[in-house]
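User: Sequence in, structure out. Go.
Assistant: Echoing your sequence, followed by the structure tokens.
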Amino acid sequence: MRSAAIRHIDYWQRISNDLHVEVVGPTFLQIASGMRLEVDVLVKNFGAEHGMIIVADASKIAGLHDAIIATGFGFSIMDAPSADRMYEREVAISVLLDWGWTGPDNEAPEWYRAAESGMSS
């Protein structure tokens, strides 16, 4: 069976390809505590100044929440999707809208701008 991290990467890569969201993973990030942290996925320009960290294993970030936030990242502990889980565009959009766009306004994906303008109408 494929690891949770690999399933996360595959799933978020589908989101990236469809919704034009910048996704990196797995990756190492330097956080405020000085620790180098390995994360499953980093979703840039959403949720916090430097993006959202996604991990399937909560122990990877245990005791580091304050340092992660102080460094300018947000984080989410998500179960990795099962190998047979279908990509659901509406669910992905809902998650990203909930986190919010944090990149330059003029670089927000078209679907995001459309959803935001629809919400304010």
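User: And one key feature?
Assistant: Strands lie at 23-24, 27-30, 36-39, 41-43, 52-55, 74-77.
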